[in-house]
Design goal:
4 domains; six-stranded antiparallel β-sheet; 13% strand; binds adenosine monophosphate; binds magnesium ion
């Protein structure tokens, strides 16, 4: 197995001089060297063939003992120095101090086909940043991260990737809902891959400690390796850096809103500096369309990270990053302008995105109202987001009275609609029909375009749960089935029609399907 190893972090960023895994505060360093934990009976249960290729590996490599051992933490490749990164963060709106890679261990960085990749194990044991926890991950959350990060990529959404899903062969004690009922579960390790795992919190920790020297070292490193187009370090390039991160974060959250992905725990330590979706924890997918929905039980009271609030939270998090970068820029105006532009730009881009979802391609001043009325209607009765938009593409503009019949399948309540609701929909379909006549596309052309932005298949929470329940019993077939299904989320895939279905009733209030918690 041959990887084109770079290990740049080690050489360019300040390392923690204390070379051991014990838990501590790590100052004036970007990372600490660590050794992954050896496990009893490692077993790789799924591999992403796309990522194998991206890393310059072969299928044959994946069958080797080395592959198994390296991607479960049981062997460290020559010329690599695994490390855990130091970062802080705002959790649920409050500064939490040092957090860091508590259960993530970066193996190394490589370059293949001019693309840089950091390779990271999640769940491979304690690091200096593990605080009071064990550094481990369980099978259920590892399956969720593995499947969802690859699925997001195929949806066209910036994300960290996954190479392997493995069992450690050990048991891990977890109190799944933090309600005093701990139980043993299977331990697992996911190999995650991304150009970089740097987060807003990596910069925040230095600003919080008033360590401006190392803040600058890290920002300069980031510019050099990940934003080379911005140019050499200067106050102007730091500002440009912030602007670019703001734009990338905006694009990311727009995609989330488009497909109904709810991250669940958008703390600043879970915000990638590259605008990637990162840290798949208690995430979920909207089934009934609802601004107020969050899958995260830890956030059930305030619902800070609810679907409809995600764009605001990205902006809030950008304010924190702006504060962290301020000591290097020393001038608030430029940062404030960028933050103010975020709101304006979001409004415009959101409108454009929503237009594309309903098949409007030339701007029209009435669209804002049409879309607002649509979103109001979607809240009238529980309406499945994915099914709704997918079926909407079948709407014949000549026959608005057929609208309700076309979207009927998306309603969770199968009884006849109350008159108030059907009137609202009929009115909307009539306006929509009128508006569609302004567009040049035929019904068929519009449907084709809409089906490229409205996925047919997403990783509904219950689907992941079915794969988890089977895997717990040693059956990994469903992981593979879902993995392959989600590679083509916009295609019809007639043989997979059973996955184009509303959430079954048994999953409505089931743990793992509608209730998840942080850091499991
Ligand atoms: P999260 O909310 O999962 O993004 O995690 C927040 C912080 O808790 C990060 O610093 C994680 O590394 C840390 N953390 C979460 N779970 C564990 C664990 N099992 N062991 C050690 N650290 C953890
Ligand atoms: Mg995290």
């Amino acid at each position: 197995m041959k990887l084109n190893i770079q290990d740049t972090f080690n050489k360019e960023l300040p390392a923690d001089p204390n070379d051991a895994n014990f838990v501590r505060q790590v100052e004036q360093a970007c990372f600490s060297f660590v050794t992954p934990k050896k496990t009893k009976a490692p077993q790789i249960i799924h591999v992403s063939p796309e990522m194998v290729k991206h890393l310059g590996l072969t299928e044959e490599d994946t069958l080797s003992e080395t592959f198994k051992n390296v991607f479960t933490g049981n062997e460290v490749l020559p010329h690599t120095n695994p490390y855990a990164m130091c970062y802080g963060g705002h959790q649920f709106g409050n500064w939490a101090g040092q957090l860091g890679d508590g259960r993530a261990i970066n193996l190394t960085e490589i370059v293949h086909n001019n693309q840089r990749w950091a390779i990271q194990l999640k769940g491979a044991g304690k690091t200096p940043y593990s605080r009071t926890a064990d550094g481990l991950a369980v099978l259920r959350s590892s399956i969720r991260e593995y499947l969802c990060s690859e699925a997001m990529f195929h949806l066209g959404i910036p994300t960290t990737r996954a190479l392997t899903l493995a069992l450690s062969g050990e048991e891990v004690l977890r109190d799944m809902l933090y309600n005093g009922n701990p139980a043993y579960e299977k331990g697992a390790i996911v190999t995650r891959v991304a150009p970089s795992f740097l987060r807003f919190g990596n910069y925040q920790i230095f600003a919080a400690r008033n360590d401006i020297k190392n803040l600058q070292t890290l920002v300069d490193y980031t510019l050099k390796h990940f934003y080379p187009e911005i140019g050499t370090p200067s106050k102007e390039s730091y500002l440009q850096f912030f602007k670019t991160v703001a734009e990338k974060s905006l694009e990311m959250v727009l995609h989330w809103q488009r497909v109904g992905f709810v991250h669940g725990v958008m703390n600043t330590d879970n915000m990638s500096i590259l605008g990637l979706t990162i840290d798949y924890g208690p995430y979920g997918w909207l089934e009934g369309y609802e601004y107020g929905w969050t899958p995260n039980t830890t956030d059930a009271q305030n619902k800070r990270y609810r679907y409809g609030n995600q764009p605001n939270i990205v902006l809030w998090n950008l304010y924190q990053l702006a504060n962290a970068l301020f000591p290097l820029i020393e001038e608030a105006e430029g940062l404030e302008t960028i933050l103010a532009e975020f709101g304006i730009s979001f409004e415009a881009k959101y409108l454009e995105m929503m237009r594309s979802k309903i098949g409007l391609f030339s701007p029209n001043e009435k669209d804002q109202t049409l879309i607002q009325e649509l979103e109001n209607n979607l809240h009238l009765t529980e309406t499945d987001m994915t099914i709704f938009y997918r079926n909407l593409s079948k709407f014949p503009k000549e026959n608005p009275e057929q609208g309700i019949a076309i979207i009927q399948e998306a309603f969770y309540n199968t009884e006849a609609l109350p008159a108030k609701i059907s009137d609202a929909w009929n009115q909307w379909f009539s306006n929509y029909s009128e508006r569609l006549f302004v567009e040049k596309e035929t019904n068929a052309e519009r449907a084709k375009k809409m089906n490229r932005v409205n996925p047919k298949y997403v990783l509904r929470n219950y689907m992941a749960q079915l794969a988890i329940d089977a895997a717990d019993k040693g059956d990994y077939q469903l992981i593979d089935e879902l993995f392959n299904l989600l590679k083509k989320p916009y295609d019809e895939q007639n043989q997979n029609e059973k996955w184009f279905a509303k959430r079954p009733e048994w999953a409505r209030n089931k743990v793992g399907c509608s209730m998840l918690s942080c850091s499991s």
